[in-house]
């Protein structure tokens, strides 16, 4: 028998245009290009900043006060560090690349980084080897081997926010 590993189960990724209430998650793989992930995070952070300002109308005098109030609210929100967070998640060999991304964004002046660890459950399939059937008439009445098994593996989660 041999074990065939399945990829981890992941929920559907919401559109980057959805509201701030839905988490923006990027799953990092070991063969994903570093710069591509950096660009994807930057794009999501820019969209989050644009979304936090909301729509502003400049048609009447009252909107000037509204604009100043919105800018003040945005500065207060950033000072309290309550911006939208982009999550990078990785398991296995991709943890090293994700740590490199966390170090990269922590050295940037306009972002803050939060690092967390956890575990995820993954499913493995148990597959019989084809070479095992030497004598077709000989049948082993051993314990039945389960078709799947569940194991736990480490996960790294990096949260990135605009300052």
Summarize the structure in words.
With 163 residues, this protein is an alpha+beta fold. The chain is built from three helices and five strands, in the order ββααβαββ. It has a five-stranded mixed β-sheet. The termini are far apart.
Topology readout:
Layout: E1 2-5, E2 24-27, H1 34-53, H2 62-79, E3 86-91, H3 94-106, E4 111-127, E5 148-162
Parallel strand pairs: 2-3
Antiparallel strand pairs: 1-4, 3-5, 4-5
Strand-pairing-aware structural class: alpha+beta
Number of strands: 5
Strand order of the largest sheet: 1-4-5-3-2
Largest sheet: 5 strands, mixed
Indicate the low-confidence ranges by residue numbers.
none
Helix content: 25-40%
Number of helices: 3
Question: Gist?
Answer:
By secondary structure, the protein is an alpha+beta fold. It is 31% helix and 28% strand.
Descriptive labels:
single chain, 163 residues, alpha+beta, 5-stranded mixed sheet
């Amino acid at each position: 028998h041999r074990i065939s590993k399945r990829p981890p189960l992941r929920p559907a990724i919401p559109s980057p245009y959805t509201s701030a209430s839905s988490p923006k998650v990027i799953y990092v793989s070991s063969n994903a290009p570093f710069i591509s992930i950096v660009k994807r995070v930057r794009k999501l952070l820019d969209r989050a900043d644009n979304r936090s300002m909301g729509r502003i109308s400049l048609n009447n005098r009252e909107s000037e006060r509204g604009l100043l109030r919105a800018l003040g609210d945005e500065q207060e929100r950033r000072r309290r560090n309550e911006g939208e967070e982009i999550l990078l998640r990785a398991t296995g060999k991709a943890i090293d690349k994700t740590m490199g991304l966390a170090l990269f964004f922590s050295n940037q002046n306009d972002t803050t980084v939060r690092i967390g660890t956890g575990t995820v459950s993954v499913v493995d399939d148990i597959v019989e080897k084809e070479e095992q059937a030497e004598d077709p008439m000989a049948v082993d009445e051993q314990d039945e081997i389960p078709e799947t098994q569940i194991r736990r593996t480490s996960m790294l989660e990096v949260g990135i926010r605009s300052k």
